[in-house]
Each structure stands twice: as C-alpha cells, then as structure tokens.
Write a structure and sequence with these properties.
Largest sheet of chain A: 5 strands, antiparallel
CATH architecture of the largest domain in chain B: Up-down Bundle
Distance between the termini of chain A: 18 Å
Structural class of chain B: alpha+beta
Radius of gyration of chain B: 25 Å
Strand content of chain B: 5-15%
Number of helices of chain A: 15
Structural class of chain A: alpha+beta
CATH superfamily of the largest domain in chain A: Multidrug efflux transporter AcrB transmembrane domain
Number of domains of chain A: 3
Oligomer: heterodimer
Helix content of chain A: 40-55%
CATH architecture of the largest domain in chain A: Up-down Bundle
CATH superfamily of the largest domain in chain B: Multidrug efflux transporter AcrB transmembrane domain
Largest interface: A-B, 83 and 82 residues
CATH class of the largest domain in chain B: Mainly Alpha
Largest sheet of chain B: 4 strands, antiparallel
Number of domains of chain B: 2
Distance between the termini of chain B: 24 Å
Number of strands of chain A: 20
Number of helices of chain B: 11
Helix content of chain B: 55-70%
Amino acid sequence: MLHFQRWKVILVCAVVLAGIIFAIPNLIPSAALQGLPSWIPHKQVNLGLDLQGGAHLLYRIDEKDLVEDWLGNIRGDARETLRSNRIGYTDLSQNVSAKSVSLRIRNPEDVDKAFTELKKLALPVGDDVFGGFSGNDLEITREGDKITLAITEVGLNERFGSAIQASIETIRRRVDAFGTTEPSIQREGRNRILVQVPGVSDVQRLKGLIGETGKLEFKLVDPAANAAEVAVSKKVPPGNELVYSSDEPPVPYVLKDQVMVSGENLVDAQPGFDSRTGEPIVTFRFDQAGAKRFGRVTQDNVGLPFAIVLDNAVISAPVIREPILGGTGQISGNFTVQEANDLSVLLRSGALPAKLTVIEERTVGASLGADSIESGKKAAIVGMLLVVAFMFVAYGLFGLFANLALLINVALIFAVLSLMGATLTLPGIAGIVLVIGIAVDANVLINERIREEIRAGKSPIASVDSGYSRALITIIDSNVTTLIAVLVLFWLGSGPVRGFAVTLTVGILASMFTAVTVTRMMVAFWLRWTRPKTLPL
Amino acid sequence: MFRGLQLIPADTKIDFVGQRAITWFVSAFLTVAPLLLVATVGLNMGIDFQGGTLIEVQTKESPANLADIRSKISGLGVGEVQIQEFGAPDEVLIRIASLPTEEEQQASIAKVKEALGDSVEYRRTEIVGPTISSELIAGGTFAVVVAMIGIMIYVWFRFEWQFAVAAIASLVHDVTATIGLYALMQLEFNVSSIAAILTIIGYSLNDKVVIFDRIRENLRKYKRMPLVELLDLSINEMLSRAVLTHVTTFLAMLPFLFFGGEAIYGFAVAMCFGIVVGAYSSIFVASPMQLILGVRREAFAPSASPAKDKSEAPARA
C-alpha cells in the first residue's frame, strides 16, 4: 500500500501535470492568449451555440423537387433516343408518385428496338465504398406497347447523395461569404443537412441566403403577348410562360419558354454601383459558351426586352440596346447595397440542386449566450464550494485529499475537452457539477469503508489498504451503470444534450483516476511521512 | 488533526425493510399517481415534442409592454399565439402553435420578426417542424427504453436476475415519479427533460448498485441471517455513505436552481428531485424487492472462503 513503484508515481504526476497545463488556457481570455509564445498550449474548450450564440438550422432536401427534375430529364432523354432512332411514340408522361416515365410505341414492330435502345439509358450505380455494382439507376419494363422507365431505390439514393453533396458545397460558399468563423455544414441522415453557424446575428438574412435555390435564367420577353391580359385570362400562348416579378405588387411578364443562357454559364458575379445612377448593381461574366450564346441572341433581338429570372421571379427586364458581345453584363433591380451583395453571393455560389426547407431551427443571441455562461459559471462555482466545504466537514484531512483530487478532476475534464476539441454547452456545465457529485461518491465509498475497517480493529495501513481495494469493485460497478445511461444520451442527443453526455463521460472516466489512484497516492505518502498510530477519520 | 464529523452514527439499526407495509404503499403511490396526473392534468409539452415556434425577446423598455406585443402579433394570422413574461420583466416569451407544414412555420416567423422589427432584441428562436417533433418523441422514448435494457443486462451479468429486476422496477418508479413532478409543476417537458430522466436513471442506478454490492457481500458473509435482517443490515451499513453522497450531489446541483438561469431551471429541478427519489427507491423499492423475488444465497456463497463463515455477527469490534 505504502510503496508505489517509481514509474507509477511519475506517470500519475505527469498525467496530473499535463491536465493542469492543458486546462490553463481556459482561464486566460482568448485575446491575451494570442499574445503568448507558441510553446504554451493555446487550445480552449469550444463553446456550444447555446453559450456563444449562433444558429442551428436543419434543412431537408425536397424529394419531390428532385424526383420531378430527374423525371423531366428522363423524358428528354427518352424523346431524344426515340427520335434519333426514328421510332414513333405517343403518351409520353411522367408519374411522380410512382417515380416513373411511361410511353407507348406507335408501331408494334418497333417495340423490341425501342426497348433495347431505352435500356441503354439505365446507368449502373456504384453504391458502396469499394465501388461495387449494386444495380442500375433506372428499371425499364415493357408491357405490350407500353414501356416504363422507373427510378430505382439505389438510383434515388445515389441522386440524393450527390444532390446533398452539391448542396453542402453551395451552402458552404454562401455561408463563407457571410463572414462568420467556423461554420459547420454536414449531412444528417438520408435527406438532411445540418448547418451550424456560431456568432451570427441576422438569422433571417442567413436563412434567405442559404434557402434560396439560386437558379438564374435569361429569357426573352414575348413582345407579341399582352402580359396584363394573360395574367387575367391565364391563357398562356404555347411556347410561352407567365412569370411575375418580385416587386410588390408583382408585375406579370410573358416570357419565351426557351432559356437564352442560364446561371451555369456564369463564371463570376460581383456587387457594384452603376456608373451613371450610382445605384447598387450586380455585374456578372459568362464563360465562353455563355458569352457566345448571349451575344448571338442579343444580336438578333436588339430593341426588344429580355428578362433576368431568379428562382422563377423576374428581377428585371431591360431592353437590349445593342448586342452584348463581351460576355459581361449587369443586373439592376432597385437593390439595396446588401441585396446586391447577397445576390452576387447567390450567383457566384451556384444553384442548389433542389429546394431546401428548414425543419428545425434553434438560434441563440449573443447576449443570451453570455448570460448563460455567466449564470452557469456562478452556479458551478457555488456548487463546487459547497461540496468542498461539506467534504471537509465530513472527513477532515481525508476530505481535503478528496477535494484536491476533485480540483484535479475538473482540470482534467477541461484539458481533455480542450484537446478533443469537444464542445461545452450549458447542460455540459451542469454535467461537470454532476461529475463532482459522482467523483465525491467514490471518495465517500472509500472513506466509509476505511472507517468500517478501523472499527473492525485493523491497523491504519491495513484499513486504508482494504478500504481502497474493497471499495474499488463497487466504484467500478456503479460507474459503469451510469456510463451506460450516459452513452445512450450521447447517441440520442444533439447539440447541448450531446455536450452534456460528453462532459459526463469524460468526467466519470477522469474521476476513476483522480478519486481512486490520485487520492490513494496522496494518502500513502501522508501515511509514510507521519506514521500515525490512529487514522484521523 | 481534524477527523471530520461522523454525521451519521456508525451503528444505526433502523428497520427500513421492516416498514415495508407502509413504504410499498408510498412507492406504489409515487408510481401510479404521476400516471393519473399526466392523464388528467397533462404534461406541459414543449415545442420539441409538439412542434411549433418559440421566440424569446428582450424589450428595450422595462417592464415589457405585453399588450403592445400582443396587438402587433395578433393581426398577423399566424394561428394560436401565447405571450408571457419570462424570467425578467423585460423578457418576453412568444409561443406559436405548430402549423401543418414547415414552410408555413418559416413564413410565420418572418412575419412576426417583421412586425416586431427593431423594437426588441431576439435572444432565442426555436422552430421545430412536425417531422422533427415526432422523431424526437420516438427517439426520447427509445433512448429511455434502451438505457433500461442495457442497464438490466449489465446488472444481471454482474449480480443475479433478481437484482436486475429490482433495479428496473425501481428505475420505473423513479422515472414515473419524475414525470409526475413535471406534470405537477407544469415544467416544460422537452429534450432536456429526457436528458434529465436519463441522468437520473444513471445516478439512481449507481446508488442501487452500491447497495446491491453490500447485499451480495453480506449474503456471502452471513449464511443464516434472515433476509429481512440482512437487507436492513446492508442498508444501515451503507446509510452514512448514501446520505453523504446524496447531500454532496444535491449541494452541487442546488445552485443551478437559483443561479443557473431559465434555460437550465427545469433540468435542475428534475435533477434535485431525482436525487431524492433515487435515494428513496434504493432503500424502499430496490432492496425490499429482494424479498419478493427471493434471491438465492447459493448463487453467491460457494466461492467464499470458509474463514468468513465464522463471523455470524456484524463485523464490528
């Protein structure tokens, strides 16, 4: 009991020392920390969104939107295939709920050929990490003269995967433009994206920027149609469409279906000011293909208006004064400076593959976060003082040993959290306090056991020895059961709750070390040093 | 040298299990009454489980003009709205009932923020859509059940099935009693309540395992002692430890009730309550259940060394 092997003593001291060293940066304000030399540890515990303020937005990618888009493409591909093979067809239609496109072949003799040709549209999907083949993205079936192209489950999953990947990248570019530090954007489950942005204050604007699809199209205005009349009668001429502007009240426009140039051909967009009016505008530049197409169309339509359409709303409809051949242009639409800025971000970041809907939003203002830190700190410190005082009253010197171990325990929690880059939340602070209770329990168990052994007439050293070894079984059993509940909490929870589970887990593990090993060593050294006839317990 | 005060005398001989006629009744009441309370009064379900919108604002003037805020929002047609003071006189909580779709929720909050404009500072906004709220209910229930099963398996593995059953029964008691507290005080029941319940489960079980450990030890030690006596002896031996541990944990948690702020108040109330209820159920539910379940001594006895058999009386010199 009294003799620890030297390497053990050194190891324990090293762990305790390292714990203290890595916990210290958390006591120093981060501004002061910047000025210190680089060999001093700089890592602090990350504060959760509930403590530093920020936005937690959970988006769902619109499945229907994505399926409709894809069915549209399949229809186009089928049409193209049959046309190039000179096969006549009718009844080309899509069924969104069945996720399929179907058509009938006019001439029964062509059905076989059509079937073989259409089958080529199905592409294999490599679904797993090893690139294994897990099926085709389309399933093509025939029934008499009817051929059906249905989207398969694996195909849909693959689409989801890539749509989410693309959305995450687009969102990242948009959030980065917002200028906040360390946003986190990640996939959640099958069709969700979790966006966490610390320290953001204007959440409405952030949501506007992330949620906008950002699909930009340039279309010609049909000069023959009277937009006001069409808006009333709803009789849109074939090959045209009715689109409203984003003004209040909305102005109707009759546009030609065909897209002149789309946002995919955009290489850059920047906010700026009109040199003549001083009004905020967005300037843009097309890539080569886009510039060529835009030049050709504008050349053919001088004097006529065209519309700049963003997410099915007309932003502006200027008249083409002269052919625009340089591939650059500007959008003006009574913007404020901020609107022009946001629009340019939107255009630069590219369009989202499908609509996103916020299904969960939790935002905390910076002032509430600061208040929470303050109250959490206060409660934790008061709680800790109460515990320390109580332990001293209950156990005297052995209480002091336990208290010292408790402080080391708290230091270790902060050190591990800092090194792990874990997040401290308000429930996490409560978790630390709970750990204090659990850590103290270990010492209570040990001290009570030692008292029992003393009463049984054992010598001080023997009492301490069997007190520790017998209490240890109980301590392990009771902590493992607590850990089971906490691990479930970690697996279930998100955000603040998960932070609670993390601090509790780290704390319980650390407490096994501090409350058992560290106090045992302290007691052993004290026994060796004083050789007491009776234990002060 | 200060040796600390012996707060609980070492030789208490309280017949806890002897009082089981009364305590069974109390325990049954604590288990059943909350269910009736939930069925009649109901839980104050937070938006986590019900869906909806919650906006916490701080007004520029103090106290806040609730009537003014109400009039600004009532005309917006966003459905059922609750407006109340929250924590401080200049802090107001606005709750909007759940709307059928997420898009409508987003539209409603945009309208509210536009109507209130810059007259307030937004401290917190929470919007939980219908999809998420039903997932959270399922997830929360599932988590509590999984935790219980995991614990049962561990206790079964480390002790005997009787102990596992007793542990689960007393945990069910703790959980329903805690839910009853939420219903009685009309505290908001949300995801952090589930966290509180899981934590109480963990903490309470910790306590049960400590007592089980001692029961097991005493079963090996005193082969012929009647079970009622043995249970009481075990509880009494661990009484000092139980009191000290629960008092320290309670003391550690208590300041969160007073200084922790509104965000953690419900959690702190539940934890403080859970500490007390857990302590109760260890002594009055988990231990006497061994009588009903009939724990087998042979399960623990054979491996014990013969030396221990000599001491038939409690080891107190």
